[in-house]
Amino acid sequence: MTYQPVAVARYAPRVGASRTAAMTLRKPPRTSDVRADPAPMRWAIIGVAVAFLVLFIVMPLLNVFGQAFAKGLTAYFSALGNPDAVAAIQLTLIATAISVGLNLLFGVIAAWAITKYDFAGKSLLITVIDLPFSVSPVIAGLVFVLLFGAQGYLGPWLQEHDIKIIFALPGIVLATVFVTFPFVARELIPLMREQGTQDEEAALSLGASALRTFFCVTLPNVKWALLYGVLLCNARAMGEFGAVSVVSGHIRGETNTVPLHIEILYNEYQFTAAFAVASLLALLALVTLVAKVLLETREREE
Amino acid sequence: MSGATLGRYGRRVIPGFGVTLGVTLLWLSLIVLIPLVALFLRTTELSFDRLVRIITSPRVLHALELSFGLSLIAAAVNLVFGLAVVWALVRYDFPGRRLFDAIVDIPFALPTAVAGIALTNLYAENGWLGRLLAPLGIQVAFTPLGVFVALVFVGLPFVVRTVQPVLEDLEAELEEVAATLGASRLTTIRRVVLPAILPALLTGFALAFARAVGEYGSVIFIAGNLPNVSEIAPLLIVIRLEEFRYADATAIAAVMLVASFLVLLAINLLQRWSERRNGGA
User: Fold this and answer.
1) b/e map of A221-253 (b: 16 or more CB within 10 Å)?
2) How far is A22 from chain B (nearest CA, A)?
3) How far apart are CA A284 and CA A233, in angstroms?
4) Is B11 helix (H, G, I), strand (E, B) or coil?
5) How far apart are CA A182 and CA B2, in angstroms?
6) Do residue B106 and residue A151 have CB atoms under 8 angstroms apart?
7) Residues whose CB falls within 8 Å of the CB of residue B217, separated by 6 or more in sequence, listed in order
8) CB–CB of B14 and A38 under 8 A?
């Protein structure tokens, strides 16, 4: 096979996702190198870069935790123990579990179809899978309101049969699945393309069934990328705000997810409580990033 | 579906082609394609006059101008500062380099609502940064400047992560040859390095722009959301929806969707250009 998977993987847009293991941070060239820049330029660029990152990333992040604990631990934990907060956390966990499960299943199937066979229109298919990344979350929510809302195409039929989608869990799940649609497939496709089909062909020719081949050959080959895709999908699903906000109806204790609960608290000037709940999601983001670094190291070692 | 099938492209040894592709297309249609088509169908139900009237009403026009204009400026800022970040991360060694590399992804991982309230709090009059800016007469929170700050935040990783792998893989020989031939360091960077990473830079710029145009969660807290001043287009969609003015919401959404498709097309063309340019590598 004279495939050039690396070049494809390198330039493919990795929106919302991050680089593959082969692209982890390398050692910079030594200063004796011809490529070394003059010292004043070096310090100016490092200064600008660090200042930019501190201003736009470190400060907001520190601010979340600073505000969350501003009134002490008691206020922090009482905000988290509030019944509405607990209900929001439960709803978020349920909606996320369903959405991530669905996207895991279909992401793996899509990546398999795209990387194990040749067919016409493949690049178009990849573009369409990526589409949700370039659609505003608000529009992602709106399309489901237009389909299933009271004024929507299927609204009257749903009402007749007493099925609630908008302002209920199914709507929240649909919107979440839409915005996290590409994550798993996006992580798997470059890697599975690089690995080709020889391993599977060998297993099949030795008499393994298709399912056995998938679980014993393909899955172990991609487990770290798959895990990372699921983590990213999970982080985004738990934190999705715009799309869920449009379809949820903001019914407190019923259809409020964690990000929506944060919005309500903030708009009611309960800043400490808002930041306390927000710190949970910020922690989730940090855990996701740490896991990413660990998974990349792990994958490089193998 | 088991067993080898003969396809147009030769023998398919691995079974399951029909099933997996079928399931993929079905799922894709149900979740992504049909809902998006429904949006456009809804738009075609409006007469052309009505569509134009909605889009050109002062409030909608201002919201669209604000969203697209500020997204463009924010993406440009990310282009310049993102290049500085990527250059520092790839070319220099400094304390905390690995940590800074890791936190570039924070805007991807941090939920937008959390980023929104954190930025608002930071730039509010009594916030850590707002307190410093207030004596200078600069107000960020609840002004278009606040919208800009939020859009820079959400777009930050795109330029860095698109350019980083390209700059890392740039062959050292190119710069060494330029230096040997007597080019100064700045000339080498301007004439050799920058052209090589230009497609990636522009792709990152387009991605950051696309993300910023549709951004909602991190903006609405800090924007103040004054109609005709700091009201972004995605928020106006939500407002119209809450007023049950579905036609208005749909029309604004359709315009934004067409715009993001155009950006997506531009990104694809950029990618083809960059693949051609780096094809030999």
Assistant:
1) ebebbbbbbbbbbbbbbbbbbbbbbbbbbeeee
2) 9
3) 12
4) strand
5) 28
6) no
7) A137, A241, A242, A245, A259, B111, B112, B113, B115, B116
8) no
Please tell me the distance in Å from B70's CA to the nearest CA on chain A.
Answer: 16
Q: Which residues of A touch B42 (CB under 8 A)?
A: 146
Distances in Å between the alpha carbon of A284 and those of A72, A176, A281, A290, A300? Answer: 21, 17, 5, 10, 24
Whole-number Å distance between alpha carbons of B63 and B74:
16
Within 8 A by CB and 6+ apart from B75, the residues are B155, B205, B206, B208, B209, B212
d(CA A277, CA A77): 9
Mutate to test the interface with A, among B2, B31, B68 (most CBs of A within 10 A): B31
Query: Who among A16, A181, A260 is closest to B32 (CB)?
Result: A181
Whether residue A145 and residue B241 make contact (CB cut-off 8 A), yes or no, is: yes
Look at B24 and A113 and tell me if their CB atoms are within 8 Å: yes
DSSP state of B242: H
Give ipTM to 2 decimals: 0.89
B254 to chain A nearest CA, in Å? 9
The pLDDT tens digits along chain A (302 residues) read 333 333 333 333 343 333 443 456 777 776 567 777 888 999 999 999 999 999 999 999 999 999 999 999 999 999 999 999 999 999 999 999 999 999 999 999 999 999 999 899 998 899 899 899 889 999 999 999 999 998 888 989 998 999 999 999 999 999 999 999 999 998 999 999 988 888 999 999 898 888 899 999 999 999 988 998 999 999 999 999 999 999 998 777 788 999 999 999 999 999 999 999 999 999 999 999 999 888 888 877 77
* CA-to-CA separations, A32 to A35, A39, B92, B181, B193, in angstroms, rounded: 8, 12, 12, 18, 19
Check: CB of residue A260 under 8 Å from CB of residue A241.
Answer: yes
| Separation of alpha carbons A268 and B117, rounded Å | 13
CB–CB of A262/A188 below 8 Å? no
* Listed residue (B147, B94, B38) closest to A146, CA to CA: B38
Question: What's the gap in Å between the CA of A240 and the closest CA on chain B?
Answer: 6
Long-range contacts of B184-189 (CB under 8 A, 24+ apart): B185/A37, B185/A38, B185/A41, B189/A37
Rama region for B240: left / alpha / beta (φ>0; ψ in -120 to 50; rest)? alpha
Q: How far apart are CA B27 and CA B69, in angstroms?
A: 35
User: Do the beta carbons of residue A145 and residue B241 sit within 8 Å?
Assistant: yes
